[in-house]
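Write out the 3D structure for:
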Amino acid sequence: MRPLDEKETTAVFEKLFKFTGPNLKHLIERPAVEGPDPTPGRYCFRLHKNRVYYASESLVRRAISVSRPRLASLGTPIGKLTKSGAFHLTVHCLDLLAAHARHKVWLKPASEMTFLYGNSVTKSMLARITENTKAGDGVVVLSMSDLPLGFGVAARSAQDCRKADTNAVVVHHQADTGQYLRSEEELA
């Protein structure tokens, strides 16, 4: 387990900024109240076996006493770095993204299962969309009861969605909560 270097930090922050925008500072400056310390700490990002974790500083200090081969996980896994240096978000970070997301999409109740099976969101599945969404923005997909289902990338802007065909893709699927069942071995 080690801190991210400059290139890795840039890749992680660029990806998170795509979904959270200026709310990214709330992720970083969020006070952590876990641990024996009476004063609140902060959260940080750590790399372990090509996976990026989001954990409190007090948890990181306690994890230092565990040897690297024996350390399985630390905090919340938010993504993984590929060998080429690209960063991919995983479904584990969905709660963090949903809490700080800039753009959101709500699905009709009848189409939630279609998304959870790994399909992209079409206009016919769409119930609501955040007004200022542009094509290429990161969006969090929610149910009508504001339960986070997954996330993806907007294929069309909010204005283009109004004029689009009912079968037109609105959000390209990236991850959803159904992945826990579809690929248990990979996510463990």
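The domain at 2-96 is CATH 3.10.450.220 (Nuclear Transport Factor 2; Chain: A,).
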